[in-house]
Amino acid sequence: MFYCPDIQNSKILSEEESQHAVRVLRLQAGDEIELVDGVGGYYKAKITNPHPKHCEFEVLETKTEFGKRNYKLHIAIAPTKNIERFEWFIEKCTEIGIDEITPLLCRFSERKIIKPERLEKIIVSAAKQSLKAYFPKLNPLTSFKDFIKETETSQKFIAHCYELEKKTLQKICAPGGHTVILIGPEGDFSQEEVKMAIAEQFQAVSLGNSRLRTETAGVVACHTVALINDF
Asked: Mind giving me the DSSP string for 96-143?
């Protein structure tokens, strides 16, 4: 599987993808390949010029809205202190299926800087690996306060560990539509942040009885929403 975001205007793989096709996979003229554009397009093509820096191809078959889901999921999550754990979250949620990811800056956040270029590469790799034609949008690092005030959808949830009234996500999240879920840092959201979110019509939810790491909670939330919509 190859990624070609500009396939409508150019039938040439990027230098990185060309090198993988020609140098690593040793593909030749006439060999067939599969491509995605990241916005729902899936293509079958044939290599016409196997150049290691600008491999050219001819499109044989096109499918639009390939693998389109009947719901949208946006997870806003505090990046972990150990960036590899956050990268793992990005990878696994891309494989499961997610539309937007917003790194969230909270009161107890231990990481306040991220490198979006590396995270974008992880998204591309995971999407290609799991045959996804839709790639999630990675938003800039956003403050908790700004995010909750700007979010407008009927299904808004905040997952936290406090002994406050909350329901399990699988019982309260309805299939279809647009769902937004907030996941806090390793030290959880502050109680003030939870109250602020609830004031903005976010519903407090639990992800189960176990106390989960931030990145695990994000994956559990993503998979739970996927299961709700698949049955």
From this structure: H--SEEEEEE-TT-S-----HHHHHHHHHHHHHHTT-SBPPEEPPPEE
Give the largest Cα separation in the chain, rounded.
Answer: 63
Which domains, from first to last, does the chain contain? Answer: 2-63 (2.40.240.20), 71-230 (3.40.1280.10)
pLDDT given at position 230: 85
The amino acid present at 108, given as its one-letter code, is F
pLDDT for position 175: 94
The residues, ordered by sequence, that sit 6+ positions from 25 with a Cβ below 8 Å of its Cβ are none
Hey, which residues does 61 pair with through a beta bridge?
44
Rounded to the nearest angstrom, the gap between the alpha carbon of residue 101 and the centroid of all alpha carbons in its chain is: 5
Q: What tokens does 120 get?
A: 């974008």
| Structural contact between residues 205 and 101, judged by C-beta atoms closer than 8 angstroms | no
Region 107-120: mean pLDDT is 94
Instruction: Say what percent of the chain tops pLDDT 70.
Output: 100
Give burial (CB, 10 Å; 0-12/13-18/19+) of 133: buried
Q: What tens digit of pLDDT does each residue of 133-172 get?
A: 999 999 999 999 999 999 988 899 999 988 888 899 999 9
